[in-house]
Amino acid sequence: MPNYILISALACVAIVLADRFFRQLNSRHADEPIIIPPKIHLFGHLLQVLQYKGLYYKELRDTHKLPINTLSVFGSRNYVVNSVKIAGAVQKARRSFVSQPFQIMFATNVAGTSKHGRARLQQMLESGDRKDDGGLFRALRTGMAPGSGLDELNRTTLPKMADVVALLKPGDKLYTEANLWRWLRDHVSMAIMDSYYGKNNPFKDPKVKDAFWSYEDHVPSYMFLPQFVAPRAYRQQKIVVDAFEQYLRRNDQQYASSTVRNYCDVQKTYDFSFRDNGGFHATLAIGLLTNIAPCVFWMTVNIFSREDALREIREELTNHLTDITEDGETTKRTQTIQLTKLMTESPVLMSTYRETMRLYSFGASVRTVTEDTMLLDQYFLRKGSMVTIPASSAHTDPDIWGPDVNEFNYRRFIDTKVPGAANRAFGGGSSLCPGRHYATSQTLAIAALMVLQYDIKPTNGDEWPTPSAKKTKSVSVVMAPDRQVVFQVQSRPHDESEVQNLQISDAKGISSVDKLFT
User: Where is the signal peptide (predicted)?
Assistant: First the structure.
């Protein structure tokens, strides 16, 4: 029979020793940012971040009013930056603050990378060759940057998005009822995967698609022994990675976009197994699919719930419509709107998009401190610690945005100029999201298609939903709705709008969106 008294005594001794050890680690340098103690000793901050995500950082900022603070979890330091000025200084000091270690840890854990694959990635990192370090992902960044790769992706995706939005047409019925959040997630994700991975996209198999959303739902657990913490999600991960592995073994990437083909070509040069490469593609899918649909959802909610916004944006977009001609004769059944006009000549639509990203995005840029650093001659940051720059702090700072900082103002960005570092919807500095140009193009296109063709409202007079951090995955940048709401989607009367079939055209020559966020 176990000696429970002895076991309990040993456990108590271990806890006391661990407490003393972590207290020694937490001895504070005189110029180090103030340490905020957790409500639960040792791991309280970790629990709060898992529950409230980026909004926990905002809560701490509002409570303690610190431009930068220190959170301690099991003795390790996490410096949380709330000041735009300090965030800008971190971004400029690229040698002292690097994002690669965290990116590699996240990618390998979520991808289920083998020991050989992890060692290879670590070798690339420790070589000190930044070009080699980023070579694996350079093809993705290049393919998603303004140029031929982005033009191809937009040209392929936009017709698919038009077809997706057309599925909402009620036909002979008065209106269609749809769980808009789930509907957008499922259909938009398939259009994106088809555009990137081609006709043999692994998500064609419903089993793989369903497994992906279960797998994605538990991403935080992959940082801590997932086979024990979330065994079902661990099995779902295997289904998704298996599917991508078989996709690569069959050479199905030959039917994919040039961005994916080039990425696969680069993977071959790094001596990774098919299995490891399949895991990297599963991780890429998370980045591609988890943010466009929620952003479109919140744009839709905030436009259709505000009569002034809906009217102004419709007028703005209607002025851009061009009739498509057939054999020299104009037809009113199909019209087109240029993507470039959505991005450069639609100030109210673009302001609404930027306000959506400001108020509903709460991602964070994470970096590792490579050397003891005195930042701005004021703050001492220790080597080996982590620096977190949460978007929620910059996006809700009343000194930057004014007294209505927590309200949705769809016209906020028409004349407002703010510091570039205050716009952190896509991260900042070396950790800028490579898919930001594609995401912006597709989000604006889908929103325009819906505004011009439909009237949308909650069913049975239900209230419009509000965002919730609790229902949002830690991996997502944009918050999810707090509850599922069924919407009535009704086609606009033809005497009000002659747009029966709408297309987005001119999917080329898209310039950088970075200037739109500065």
Answer: 1-18
